[in-house]
Amino acid sequence: MPKFRIAVLAGDGIGPEVVAAAIAVLEAAAAPWGGVFDWTRYPWGTNYYFEHGQMAPPDFLDRLQPHDAIFLGAVGHPKVQDHITLNGLLLPIRRRFDQFICLRPAYLYDGVESPLKNKRAGEIDMLVFRENTEGEYANIGGRLYAQTDHDIAVQTSLFTRRGCERIIRAAFDSARARPRKRLASITKSNAQGYGMVLWDETFARVAAEFPDVATESLLIDRAVMEFVRRPESFDVVVASNLFGDILTDLAAIIVGSMGLAASGNIDPTRKNPSMFEPVHGSAPDIAGQGIANPLAAILSGAMMLEFLKLPEAAGAIHQAVRDVLRRGEPRTADLGGRATTAAVGAAVADAIRRG
Ligand code: GGG
């Protein structure tokens, strides 16, 4: 078994707490294969920013390049504007390593209550493909006459035929491989008459190659309504960078908690390291208290194991998480419990060792 070189960016707030719990679980899951991971921890994030005036050193992307994967906790600090933390660390990684697929599953586990009434375990089961390298996150624009009465801001969304086609195609491939074979595309092409019309046209063109996949195209305002009204009807969903981000917070909440939402930022060509991170942010309101839910980070770790082609180890984590959630304890406050991050992490690791 090769050793996998994993870059760990625990980051800010609850990031280090959930990452520590997740690494212990990943070690437990991979133990039958011997010492599988070579973890390298990088102290980048807002503490680094306070000391150096930037989120990471100038060569940080070159230093990440040789790794097999990146495992990230969270970035963000109440004393630093979020566009600085995002553009200083997270977004350059996604772009430089061409992690154009942001994969975000949302599944209603047995033992977890949806805020939507009468939803049974497994009834909500969707996989969102978020475009991850362009769209509304392209960071193209500028300010003129900043901080004066004439302040002007221009922010441009970027949609390319190549960018639309590759994420839409990846979503179709995934939908075809799933039992329900359904794909929903979400835009706002009535108002965004250039970029999102290009998206819609690309979706229609690629759809012709997948006659076995049932499709629907929804505007984002209708989509948020339908996520609440008929979430069980969604299987695979594909959306732009911004809409994918917003939709997956909604998807996380209807399956019980942001504390369960995992994600992978994937370069499917494997030329570059892919990055795995919980969807949640740094949660400064609970940071340092040891009460954050580590399951989103743990499930992101399982996605990393799948990507590294360790499906048995990933399966062991999924089974252990299912067991712990079904049992009902220990669980953290976001799921109605009182347990600590460490206790939930230890319960999952124990379930893996017993399993
Ligand atoms: N878990 C990573 C994290 O801290 N995410 C916070 C965030 O604001 N992410 C923005 C995004 O994914 O677009």
Structural write-up:
This protein is of the alpha/beta class and 355 residues long. It folds into two domains: 1-102 and 262-355, Isopropylmalate Dehydrogenase; 125-254, Isopropylmalate Dehydrogenase (3-Layer(aba) Sandwich), CATH 3.40.718.10. Helices cover 40% and strands 21% of the residues. The protein has helices spanning 15-30, 46-52, 60-64, 82-96, 161-177, 195-207, 220-229, 241-254, 295-307, 311-327, 341-354; strands spanning 4-11, 37-41, 69-74, 101-107, 125-131, 135-144, 152-158, 182-187, 214-219, 236-239, 262-266, 274-278. The protein has a ten-stranded mixed beta sheet, sandwiched between helices. A two-stranded antiparallel sheet has the order 6-7. Strand 1, helix 1 and strand 2 (37-41) form a beta-alpha-beta unit. Helix 1 packs across helix 10. The chain is globular. The relative contact order is 0.17. The mean pLDDT is 97. The structure holds glycylglycylglycine.
Helix/strand layout:
Elements: E1 4-11, H1 15-30, E2 37-41, H2 46-52, H3 60-64, E3 69-74, H4 82-96, E4 101-107, E5 125-131, E6 135-144, E7 152-158, H5 161-177, E8 182-187, H6 195-207, E9 214-219, H7 220-229, E10 236-239, H8 241-254, E11 262-266, E12 274-278, H9 295-307, H10 311-327, H11 341-354
Parallel strand pairs: 1-2, 1-3, 3-12, 5-10, 8-9, 8-10
Antiparallel strand pairs: 4-5, 4-11, 6-7, 11-12
Helix pairs in contact: 1-9, 1-10, 1-11, 5-6, 7-8, 9-10, 10-11
The structure holds glycylglycylglycine.
Residues 72, 74-76, 86, 245, 277-278, 280-282 line the site of glycylglycylglycine.
